[in-house]
Amino acid sequence: WGRTETFDVSQVLLQVKVEIFSESECNSILQQYNIKSAATKYMVCARARYSGGDSCQGDSGGPLMVQDDEKWYVIGIVSFGGANCGNDSIIPGVYTRVDKYTQWITNTMAST
Asked: Where is the secretion signal located (predicted)?
């Protein structure tokens, strides 16, 4: 539902296949492009390695999902990325790692 490579807001739900980067590879790219935020163990970086496809403004809070057999799992939540998302073939999107918050999610759900 976020912005596209032309920076228009999409009227339809879009998806893109992305590749997950290691924390060190992600930080190397972020530093190279003077992005002050650094990826930590609580984050995961991803983008389409060759097409530049990525999450963009308006996608925050959306899922980063992986498929295992017939099941889909949310592994990340869109957080931030490069200013030219969708056009950058280098800067990955940064997502909050869901697995680092499962205990909090479980406790919060149990208390409602």
From this structure: none
Q: What is the 3-state secondary structure (H, E, C) of the chain?
A: CCECCCCCECCCCCCCCCEEECHHHHHHHHHHCCCCCCCCCCEEEEECCCCCCCCCCCCCCCEEEEEECCEEEEEEEEEECCCCCCCCCCCCEEEEEHHHHHHHHHHHHHCC
CA dist., res. 100 & res. 108, Å (int): 14
Over residues 50-100, the pLDDT tens digits come to 776 788 888 889 999 999 999 999 999 999 877 777 665 678 889 999 999
In order of start, what are the domains of the chain with their CATH numbers?
A: 19-110 (2.40.10.10)
| 59 contacts 1 by C-beta, under 8 angstroms | yes
The model carries a pTM of 0.83
